[in-house]
Design goal:
alpha/beta, three-stranded antiparallel sheet, globular
Length: 168
């Protein structure tokens, strides 16, 4: 899942934008959930520590890791060391430590490749989604990079339940 191409636009100054993250190889599920929350989160299970630190420095990303040694080597990079193995605890720790805004729109990024999704018409995705979904759904988004199509399905209710627990 490496993304060798630079982002199309340079990032705005940190004060003017939401935090951006890089989750290490042990935190793939957390990376996906940060994307659900709408946060730019780089994840590559095969990235070396050296490349991860360089990417954090170059793109002003916060390193999130469970690797104590990696966190200690993160000179010049903001790093968040997580102790828990449990997703809900990891997510709660990141939300609290980084003061993430849980009220911002969710599901605005591709969960696979991290790009912002774009609204598309039903006609554009008709050949790509099951007939029942096409007949019962009005809103679709699509990733401009990998082409994955998203729609508000039953998974949205499960996401909202987890987010309510997180907000409590």
């Amino acid at each position: 899942m490496s993304d060798p191409a630079p982002h199309p636009d340079p990032p705005p100054p940190r004060a003017a934008r939401a935090p951006r993250f890089l989750c290490d190889a042990m935190l793939g599920r957390l990376a996906r959930w940060l994307r659900v929350l709408g946060y730019d989160t780089h994840y590559d299970a095969d990235i070396s520590d050296v490349r991860a630190l360089a990417l954090c420095q170059r793109e002003d990303r916060i390193l999130i890791t469970r690797d104590r040694q990696l966190a200690q080597r993160a000179r010049g990079v903001q790093a968040l060391l997580l102790d828990s193995h449990y997703l809900d605890e990891q997510l709660a720790r990141v939300v609290a430590a980084c003061k993430l805004d849980l009220s911002q729109p969710h599901l605005t990024r591709c969960l696979i490749c991290n790009r912002r999704t774009r609204a598309v018409t039903r006609e554009e995705v008709a050949p790509l989604v099951p007939p029942y979904v096409l007949a019962t759904t009005k809103e679709f988004t699509r990733c401009p990079k990998c082409g994955r199509v998203y729609w508000p399905g039953t998974h949205r209710a499960r996401i909202e339940v987890r987010l309510r627990r997180l907000s409590a």
